[in-house]
Amino acid sequence: MAAYFFASPVDVEVKLDGEDERKKWDMKAEKEKTISCPIYYDGDSLSGQITVRVRDGKKLAHEGIKVEFIGSIELFYDRGHHHEFLSLSQELAAPGEMRQAQTFDFMFKNVEKQYESYQGINVKLRYFIRVTISRRIADVTKERDVWVHSYRMPPDSNNSIKMEVGIEDCLHIEFEYNKSKYHLKDVIVGKIYFLLVRIKIKHMELSIIRRETTGSPPNQYNESETITKFEIMDGAPVRGETIPIRLFLGGFDLTPTFREVNKKFSVRYYLNLVLIDEENRRYFKQQEITIFRIPEN
Amino acid sequence: MATPITPTEEGKLLSESLSTVKIQVQQMKRHLELDQLMDALKSASLMLAELRTSSLSPKQYYELYMAVFDALRHLSNYLYDAHTQGRHHLADLYELVQYAGNIVPRLYLMITVGSVYMSIPEAPVKEIMKDMMEMSRGVLHPIRGLFLRHYLSGQTRDHLPVGNDPGPSGNLQDSINFVLTNFIEMNKLWVRLQHQGHSRDREKREMERKELRILVGTNLVRLSQLDGVDLDLYQRIILPSILQQVVSCKDVIAQEYLMEVVIQVFTDEFHLHTLGPFLSATAQLHPKVNIKQIVIALIDRLAAYAAREAENEDPEETKRQEEAAARRLAEKVKAQRLRVREHAGSVNGLTPTTSVATTDVWGSAPQSPVVEKLDSAESDTVNTNGDVPAGDVNGEKVDKGKEKETLVPHVKKFRGIPEDVKLFEVFWQQVVELIKARPDLSIQDITALLVSLTNLSLSCYPDRLEYVDQVLGFAHDKIKEYTTSPDLHAQQTTANLASLLLAPVNSYQSVLTLLALQRYQTLLALQPFSTRRSLAHALISSVLKNETVIEAPEDVDGILELCSVLIKEQTDPGAPSMGRGSSSERRPGGPYSQEKEESAEEQGWIARMVHLFRAESLDVQFELLQTARRHFETGGDRMRYTYPALITAAIKLCRRYKNREHVEDDWQTKTQTILKFVRQLISILAVQVEAPSIALRLFLLAAQISDECGFEDLTYDLYVQAFTVYEDSISESRAQLQAITLIIGTLQGAKVFGEDNYDTLITKAALHGAKLLKKPHQATAVNLASHLWWQEVPPQEEVPQGEKEEEEEKEKPSPPKEEGSVENPKAYPHRDSKRVLECLQKALRIANSATEEIVTVQLYCDTLDQYLYYLDHGAPAVTPKFVNSLVELITSSIDNVSSPDIHPSQRAPPALLEGVQTPEMINRHFRNTLYYIQNKKAAAAVEGAPQSRWDEVDVVGALLKMNIPSR
Q1: pTM (2 decimals)?
Q2: B 77-106: CB under 8 A from A
Q3: Contacts of B955 by beta carbon, 8 Å cutoff, 6+ apart
Q4: What pLDDT is stored for residue A272 in this prediction?
Q5: Distance in angstroms (rounded) separating the CA atoms of residues B498 and B531
């Protein structure tokens, strides 16, 4: 019964124009469920129809219906506090009474979407359409997520990463990644050159690590997540050996690098080169790479 | 890894891995059937993950690999079909499989997809090849890497491009680089395997590596199987890369194996043109590498190739070439020997120094660069043939090849070796370099190398004597160098040196060729007894087998010098196994203690060889014999075997002189000289080596010849010598009888003597006969001696009927049929029937005095034969009545003999003839005699001769007695 009382007395449906033609993004929802969201890009207009259906032919009195387009950052440690960095609103209907289903058109023209959608461990950046039917007791709201991708111009300078590292008199290697900035479907190509090997290395792997930083000091939270571990060498190298690296990024669930998104969080990517010796000691070197999105063709 | 894994655990691990593979393969197949490629790849990846293990031994890993390999073939087939049917593009898949997180499965998948992709037309083959090769570098674990690369090599094998397209589809050059790189990397891994783990497991690891070596070697096989690889590519790219890798890996097992593989997999043609680089690389190998084995393998391969080529060539052509070679060889031998001969006189004493000088040339040559090396070789050649007009043929040989090249576009080949490839020179130079560069090379190895080198030279350049000589000289130097080393006397070294020396013996048709090899003798002299002996055996048997006629005294000298081990008393100890000490410290005179039989056989060979010392010119022939004698006289007891042959040969020579008496003016003096020579030899035989019976026979033989030639004094002297030998040295009664018989036989035919001399001799002979110890012997001898007084002139036309066995015996030295001697005023034909009768009667008397009846009767029978002979030949004093009475005598006493109660042990002792005289035999003998008499009588009656003496012979009684029906 309670459900009956508290159940929303209306059905609100948000339909977006050209929704079917858009690419979709499967957004993770609770319990392994995913919600398929259309992808929008920065500057895209959002338009559509909102249909409000009254149940059982009852009439619905409301104090106005509005539609908002909201971009918000939700920090999980700070649950409930949503920081909205974008909020556009349109009035759909003035306060009144609804007796039957009604459809409203809406349109947010050329919306600037400053950030990309992101769903991380401690933080979520989301864009959504929110329809609010204001009522005296409880507002009826309906949210509809969209996913936002944005292209950034490919960086002008894209130097290779080249570095010589080592442990004195023990291990000396030189590694090189062909770029410092990769797009999402890029390939990391590189090589490791062994200058000195005095330890018995068992194998070597390259991993991609995503580090999510939320908050600002001193209350900063870091979450590191290994996207992939990619073995690039098996067996013990000797001096003078060169090991090739090639890692296709396209298959991994990557996002572009985000730095200081709205001063709330950052998502950074690192390449971690790990050497494991026969006693399972690990020697590693992390190197940040920048990941960016380019238009898909 | 640190904990050792026991075999049982290993087995368990393997079976676990195998079962995982099995499960995954099934899954993969199911997915493939359902066209679920992603899932199939996932299963494949899981299956391949089993190959990441470090716990299996190479053998077990191989088992696992094979299981996986089969499964991947299934996948390959699917991928090919999927691509051609447009379901999946291989380029996409190639990227897709690279997401696999572990490198080993990833690379296997990549190679699987990549190699299928390579088989598709229009595929960017070049790119794929490069990429797979590059990515494979990531696997550095030796075993996993080796197998992975083996898979790479195996999968791509059929798709390697062999064209010359510069575009993305790749060309031959790419393929070569691909295989070469793979080879180099695999070799590195293979070598690295050696340096892993504990040093105490070294042996185990070495064994494991040997199990794995085929994986590395396969690459070289692939290279050799690539279509379109020509000499140029091989020479310019392939071989240098391989050699560079082999040399730089500094690993014994790898170097030995790979060099061997290179030799075996590439064609002979290639080897012929790349000897230089190959051999110089060999010189740089690890000190522990068995270099000898490598070089020998190469030499053997080329020698075999030459032999094979020779077979394949047009037989006519081959024959022509071989003949030409033989001719060149002969010329060269001649020239060489001429030179030696010329120098022999003046430089004789200096020979050691000259040899040292030439040795120096060889010894120092290696230190100088190539050009100088060849120069010195050339100068030696010129020097060798310097004095000879024909010498320039050889002197310019080095240039000859080039000349021919310019004249004829097609490079001529001799036994498959192109003439522009200086096979031997290259080998020689390289081997010398090698030996120099590797002072640690043992003498065993050096000698083995030299043996191969010699074989090569002999089979490819049969006419290039200087090559062999060069090798021999080098061997000689090396032996000198190693005098103090115990290795010199190792069995192996000795065997090698023996075969080094043996090779020319077996190869050259004529052993005389050896004499042209200046250093042969010097080298031979350094060998231990057993080697020298077996070589001498080989030498002689070669002479005998090929019936090499040795014509010149120098040759005789040379050959006998080479065989001196068999001829002379050796100063070093006979037993080769004791030859541990240096051969230079000679132990004084151990008695020549070889087994008698063996030594007799050896000497027999030498004796046989003597008969091959044949010269057209009689004077030279004599010289040959004298030379031989000079050698033989040092032989001590061996003279027993060698002298008779020499003597026989000398006697033969006498005959030849005699036959040419109308041509040769001074044949008499010469023959006399020879006979004196013979006499000397026989005396030595009689006195020094105590071979009286043969000496006696030879004296008699010589006497006969002398007799034929008409030298009375000499003949007399020879008889006297024979008697002396008889008197001094023959003591055994049986031998005495035989000796006397022989003397009587020869004397009977003597024609040269005057009355006095002859009388002296025959009286002496008869006397000796009568003085024999045993009665039967006496009787026999006296019977025979009777013939000395009845020399028979053999009728020209009528062949004398062998009347009795004894007859034949004594007729042995049948006098030559010459008119002249019959008419000369000598004793011949000496006839005195009275003395004959006396002898016969004396024989009867002796017979009568014999103790045993059977002996008496037998002797009677024998004497009866003699009587009949003389009767038949018309000796006046021998009248039928003697015959009659003797027949009667025998008839009366024969019964006593035939009585069966005579014990077998009492049989008549054998007389001249061997065999047992049984009563039946005597009986039959007598009967036969009677038959004979009967026949004679009948014949006489038919002829109707007026007064045949046979008429008077009366044997009726005897016939009756013996149950012979009278006619």
Answers
A1: 0.68
A2: 95, 98-99, 101-104, 106
A3: B884, B887, B930, B933, B934
A4: 94
A5: 6
